[in-house]
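User: Here's a structure from my thesis project, written as structure tokens. My advisor, Dr. K., wants to see whether a designed sequence matches the one we expressed. Can you design one independently, without my sequence as a hint?
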């Protein structure tokens, strides 16, 4: 089932920077849960990497999800690169789109599972994982299980989406 067009803020996790090739995000309403579920307070999942860059990326990812649940646009904006560009199966969005849609979104609960961090180069990383979201967008329940990938870039000593 394709992701609804109005699902912009959860699709935030399908982020990429404009100059990079986009990574996909899809939803599935079926399938068994992953074997290593993580709470919202976790490192957004497990990873085989334990280097400082990986820890910093996962911490930034965890801050993002916490900000989304609280509806904290200033924190979300601080985590975005100036060139932020998000994509999914059926939409593309920028910073302005995200700000506009935040008021329509209520992330009630989430569980991220089995995060994997891939350092493409020292200033570029991709995080991929699955998640179960309980969320309302523009009055519609869009809860479900989703596959996410986020692209993080190191800018001025900070990891940005």
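Assistant: Designed independently from the structure alone:
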């Amino acid at each position: 089932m394709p992701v609804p067009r109005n699902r912009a803020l959860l699709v935030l996790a399908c982020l990429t920077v404009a100059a990079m090739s986009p990574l996909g995000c899809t939803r599935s309403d079926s399938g068994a849960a992953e074997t290593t579920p993580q709470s919202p307070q976790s490192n957004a999942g497990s990873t085989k990497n334990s280097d400082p860059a990986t820890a910093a990326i996962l911490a930034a990812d965890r801050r993002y999800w916490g900000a989304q649940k609280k509806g904290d646009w200033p924190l979300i904006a601080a985590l975005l690169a100036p060139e932020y560009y998000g994509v999914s199966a059926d939409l593309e969005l920028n910073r302005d789109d995200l700000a506009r849609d935040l008021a329509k979104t209520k992330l009630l609960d989430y569980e991220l599972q089995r995060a994997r961090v891939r350092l493409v180069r020292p200033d570029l990383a991709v995080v991929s994982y699955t998640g179960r979201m309980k969320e309302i967008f523009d009055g519609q329940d869009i809860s479900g299980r989703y596959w996410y990938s986020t692209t993080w870039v190191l800018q001025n000593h900070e990891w940005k989406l």
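When you compare it with your expressed construct, this may help: The radius of gyration is 14 Å.
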